[in-house]
User: Fold this.
Amino acid sequence: MKKGYLAAFFAVATGFVLAIVLCVQALYLPQAVFASSENKMKIVLDAGHGGMDGGVTGQTTGIKESDINLSITLALGDILTDMGFAVAYTRKTQAGLYDTATKGFKNRDMQKRRQIIQAEKPDLLVSIHQNFYPSKTTRGGQVFYEKGAKDGKTFALCVQKRLNALYAQQGAKARNAMSAEYFILECSPVPSVLVECGFLSSQKDEQLLSNAAFRKRLAGVIAAGITDFFAGISA
Ligand SMILES: [Zn+2]
Assistant:
């Protein structure tokens, strides 16, 4: 009899421990809230520049904007895929999208981006860039949206709020999301943002952007801004 009680006790105890382990594990698993249907929400990620167009350059390390853009874009794509979004990219390598490095390459590169975005028919568009300013003390992330785009503005505010929280931990002042007339924002009618993830003209930002762990954190806060937008949480 005593043995039977002991066995029952161990069975209950094991069940209890297993339940706790499963609960804790569930807390750390990526939320699959966007994976429930076959029609996943699709996000196109656009890593700015590429190939012979390196974008702006870090003043101390010489790091190229195009490479930072790609690194953040790929990290963001992985996070969004884990969350259950469908993700498409305008570029996944260091190469530009202009075919041949001849006259008019920038225009061909931009037209190709538009072609990809329109063919993918996304629900959202995020373009990743790095900033540069004459003043070396200007720092932080800044999000741009198409002028007059209501949802684009709401989306931009969500991402801006998350970026500001990350940069506040690094001693940078909060920045405001702004409207702008950028080609990439006008490629599609869906909410679109261009995220300038930091200033390569600032030594402090350059140091952060040169660090792979920080780039992953940037990708994480942009993903959080995307889920805030879908959840209807504006800044
Ligand atoms: Zn750029």
User: Anything to note?
Assistant: Residues 42 and 123 are 5 Å apart (CA to CA). The longest strand covers residues 124-131. The first helix runs from residue 2 to 28.
